[in-house]
Amino acid sequence: MSHIDPILLALLIPAVGALAIGIAGRINDNLRETVTLVTAGLLAYNVWGIAPEVLAGGRPGLKLFDVVPGLEIAFNIEPLGMMFACLASGLWIINSIYSIGYMRGNKEKHQTRFYIFFAVALTATMGIAFAGNLFTLFLFYEALTLSTYPLVSHKGDEKTVRSARVYLGILLATSIGLLLPAIIWTYSLAGSGDFVLGGILEGHVSGPTIGLLLGLFVFGIGKGAMMPIHRWLPAAMVAPTPVSALLHAVAVVKAGVFAITKVIVYIFGVDFLFAEPSSGWLLYAASFTIIGASLVALQQTNLKRMLAYSTIAQLSYVIMAASILKPLAEVGAAVHIVAHAFGKITLFFAAGAIYVASHKTELPQLAGIGRRMPWTMTAFTIGALSMIGVPPTGGFVSKWYILAGAFQSDNYVAITTIILSTILNAAYFLPIVYMAWFAREPEQDRVEHGEAPLPAVIALTITAALTILFFLFNAPVLELERQIVEIPQ
Amino acid sequence: MSSWTPHLPALQVVVPLMTAPLVVLMGDRRLAWAMTTAASLCALAIAIALVGEVGEQGTMVYEMGSWAPPYGIALGVDAMSALLLLVVAGASTLGLLAAATSVSTEVEHQRQPHFYAAWLLALAGLSGILVTADAFNIFVFMEISSLSAYILIAGGPDRRALPAVFKYLAMGTIGATFYLIGVGLVYMMTGTLNLADMEQRLADVGDAEPILVAAGFITVGLALKAAIFPLHAWLPNAYTYAPNVVTVFLAACATKISIYVLIRFDFFVFQANLTEHDWQFSYFLMPLAVLGILIASAVAIFESNLKRLLAWSSVAQIGYIILGASLISVTGLTASMLHMFNHSIAKGTAFLALTCLALSISRLELKNIGGIAKQMPWTMAAFVVGGLSLIGVPGTAGFISKWYLISAALEMGDLALPLVAVILIGSVMAVIYVWRVVETAYFAKGTGVVAGDTIREAPLAILLPTWIAVLLNIWFGLAPSLPVELSGNAAELLMGHLR
Amino acid sequence: MEYLGLYNYWIAVVLLMTGFYAVIAKRNMIKKLIGLSLFQAAVFLLYITMDKVEGGTAPIFTADGAGQIFSNPLPQVLILTAIVVGISTTALGLAIVVRTKEEYGSIEEDEIQQMDGQETDSNEGSPKNSDFFVSARKPRAEDRNV
To answer: How far does A68 lie from chain B, in Å, by closest CA?
Structure first.
């Protein structure tokens, strides 16, 4: 095994795992889930094994082959991608544990198909994380869209299919309609699409064209869910909760903001964009999305939809942080990907756990639920605090860095946005927390229920613990991400 | 082998042509099928050998009966024709492999030898167009292939095939006759029929007006044959009511061969000898291509008959091919050639999947395939891959040509933005029409299935060629160096004739 | 007088347009085919005309034929081929007309279109097998139901 390149292995493990899951699914359910867990474990072991090398300044790469001259499938691990891969592969294990509890507890159909496409989606995620150029990124980006479609439409009823159509339609249309021309344009301008620290576009393009190209990228990467192309995310809420967790925390939206950050840092170059006034609109667009999505979230009465809009707002945090174009803010953007992942996956796990145990989905129904599901609601509370950015949770760390970056460049738009949105976050999360713990359970829809299935509780406890641990032990991530803002000697 | 090598261009045509009468003599349909398939495989082997030869030594010229041109008829194979020979022989072979299972449900047993003979004649005709270097020869081969195509289409099980094929026959004949007029005019001015000779002698012709008229006749005539929008009226019904395997074969290559002649004639003969002809060529075809892409895609979105849906998609995809050529640049022509190759693989796959479906479902309507993916997972998976390739999703063959096409459009300066927009809007429309089918097959409830149809997965014998096509889609999506290289060489060759 | 001298060409053009008009405007399939034949014949005439050399004879080489003028034999040979193609097309077209008559009971395109239109609308009365190679398809469920 050791002779195979670890990058290749990171792609092969989930791909082969998907096959093995398919075969195992025909034999026995337990075997299938064991295979899933083993695959997830192997992948995490492999991916985390690469991290020390990257942390030490290594940049392992792998060139697979030329599709056509100048257009190659190549991988190159840099800190941002390393972090994303570690995050996704680590959360996959937890998510799989949770899935077992959720899918069995809910007696979902087609479980084998579910696990297969989950593994395929992870293959695509690894490809995105390690992509060495725009073309490779695009290849796996599309693969991720397509492989998550069966997951989103899992239930297969008419409403689900309609929502899944919105999901696929928006993501494919933006990627083909905007991202692809942006990529081809970049290739024709710069002669390559390789991710190089400091950017490759400097000297090849100038003036308002930069703003236009940036727009094509940012809106073309629809997974980043900038308004007005965010609609697919609430639509995808029809999916089973583990899939929502995959979408919101593990892979999909993270792939979006990851790709946007990567394009800003490695294609445009932070300094190049900072010097160019026409790229300034991005900050305003992201700020608008943060405030807008938070206001919409405030009005939601369905828990998962509220979480979806919260995600949209949080994603734009990352984009806004990246668009501040200051070193500390870039670090904040990267760290926020991790912090938000832990927090949001906890919230979704909690929402799913509530659904499995009591079939409750609406906010008013949650009154008093804390006493029936103490573990779940404790985790939910921690997740909510992290979203607001209260110490001692992970959300505080990233917000700290983003703010620091904003002050570095005296960017008052960003500062105001952060303060405003923190208030809004508190306004829609705290009432739920209060209600769940202190309000009386409503009489009319009283359901006798206890905690969710054990695997689900284990999973959400782990992620809640991670949210807090990330506040305390974030040095390696910071260390890793500092490297993207300084050119290594 | 090596002593045969120089004769390969001739053998490419002779093998199927000579096998055709023998097939008629076969009483048994299985024997007829086996012979036809053997001949087609042989043609494929020759095509592959020719690709290798062209790669090594460049253009191959073969003098029929050792009569030197311009007196004798010369055959010539260069990168452009080699690429398309591969398409023609490959499409024919895959279609025939599928025919073993499929044709018996559509064509009466004792008539099948005739059916296969017509198939071989079509193959010979299409290959003939590609290998010959003689303008009149092209006409003859074109009519051989067209006449046999009419026969094949009329073999469809639905009576509506008859009016459809009649329309095709009328329009096809008009197109061929227009071409003949054009060739006649050039012959009048030059006294030669050899394409290379024409180009040289036209340089000495003082009066350019008849040449321009000839170019007009030839372009319009071939546009009719190639179903370039708005001259596509014959195509949707002809593809819809033809036997399924015939649709696989013809949709994959028939119209492309006409585009090949159109491009070849125009670049090899006219471009060097007419002032501002690149401009005329470009401004005549580009609007048609753009309209074709947009309108035909829109029609496909609202179409509910699966075969007709794909047929309309073909009209749109022809638009892409023409668009690439009308840019008159190396990249554009490369994209055009490449799309001929890739689209034939994509569309062939999609139609092969429909052929599998047709074994279970008597009417290929959208409402009849609700939830069918459960019973026919392999068939629908093949359709999905073919569809993705049509859309141009990365990792499939269709993506490569779209990449080149957009790159070429970006080189166009002021026109870049609208052209790129058209290509992308077309792609998004393709997403819609492909996904309507996929969604119905995977998620709709099986309400519309006609009573009496027993739905089960297609037999292995037909899944095999379908999945070969699927794998080709992915193979040429990830390792497209062969078609890209051939297309690039062809484009350089064509651009070399520019004034 | 120059234009009158080119009367062969004029006839070719007139024939061409007449045939073209018939193919497009006539709704009767036989008339369309007649138009198509005329259309092709016009082109044959065009080719024959161009090979004529003033005062030329048939291109037969005689032993003492030095200095003799021949008409160009090549277009004649070409057009022989084209005539064969034309005949084949017409024959095939007529065969299709016969089959259409058998299936639809009409060779008027309007009427055929009407019949087809009804089929798609009501979606019953499955079209009868109309195989060019004589019907082959087994009756399907929908045929039985009607």
So the answer is: 6
Residue A184 with chain B: CB contacts under 8 Å:
403, 406-407, 410
Q: A22 — contact with chain B (CB < 8 Å)?
A: no
- Return the closest-CA partner of residue B102 out of B474, B429, B414, B462: B462
Most confident of A197-206, A331-340, B175-184: B175-184
Is residue B85 scored above 90 in pLDDT? yes
- Owning domain of residue A464: 280-489
In a domain, A9, yes or no: no
Q: pLDDT per residue over A16-68, tens digit each?
A: 999 999 888 888 888 888 899 999 999 999 999 888 888 888 888 888 877 77
Number of domains chain C contains: 1
Residue from A121, A140, A476 nearest A334 by CA: A476
Give the pLDDT of residue C126. 40
How far separated are the first and last CA of chain A, in Å rounded? 33
* Residue A209 maps to a domain: no
The parent domain of residue C79 ranges over: 8-52+71-133
Q: Is residue C38 part of a domain?
A: yes
What percent of chain B has a predicted confidence (pLDDT) above 70? 98
Say how many C-beta atoms besides its own lie within 10 A of residue A433's C-beta.
19
3-state helix, strand, coil in chain C (%, to 5): 65, 5, 30
A468 falls within a domain: yes
Given the cut 0.90, state whether the ipTM is greater than it. Answer: no
For chain A, what is the domain count? 1
Q: What is B267-318 written as a DSSP string? A: IIIITTTSTTHHHHHHHHHHHHHHHHHHHHHHHHHH--BHHHHHHHHHHHHH
Reported pTM: 0.85
d(CA B473, CA B400): 11
Secondary structure (DSSP) of C30-59:
HHHHHHHHHHHHHHHHHHHHHH--TT-B--
For chain C positions 109-138, those within 8 Å of chain B (CB to CB) are 109, 112-113, 116, 119, 127-138
CB proximity list for A112: less than 8 A, separation 6 or greater = A21, A22, A25, A26, A32
Q: For residue C42, give both structure tokens.
A: 């016009």
d(CA B490, CA B135): 19
Omega before residue B70 within 30° of 0, cis: yes
Phi/psi of residue A65, each to 5°? -165, 165
Q: Which of C97, C130, C140 sits opposite B452 (nearest CB)?
A: C140
Instruction: Assign 3-class secondary structure to B159-207.
Output: CCHHHHHHHHHHHHHHHHHHHHHHHHHHHHHHCCCEHHHHHHHHCCCCC
Q: Is residue A442 part of a domain?
A: yes
Q: Tokens for C117?
A: 């239109």
Q: What is the pLDDT of residues C60-109, one digit of tens each?
A: 777 776 667 778 888 888 899 999 999 999 999 999 999 999 989 888 88
A166 shares contact with chain B (CB less than 8 Å): no
* Residues A225-241: tens digit of each pLDDT: 888 888 888 888 888 88
C-alpha A421/C-alpha B327 separation (Å) is 51
Residues B203 and B192: beta-carbon distance below 8 Å = no
- Count of CB atoms within 10 A of residue B496's CB? 12
pLDDT for C136 beyond 70: no
Question: How far apart (Å, rounded) are the C-alpha atoms in residues A185 and A191?
Answer: 9
Q: Which of B159, B193, B218, B220 to mutate to test the interface with C (most CBs of C within 10 A)?
A: B159
Residue B34 pLDDT exceeds 90:
yes
- CATH number for position C110: 1.10.287.3510
Judging contacts by C-beta atoms under 8 Å, the chain B residues touching residue A153 are 442-443
Mean pLDDT lowest for which of A207-216, B14-23, B350-359? A207-216
Of B151, B163, B177, the CB nearest to C132: B151
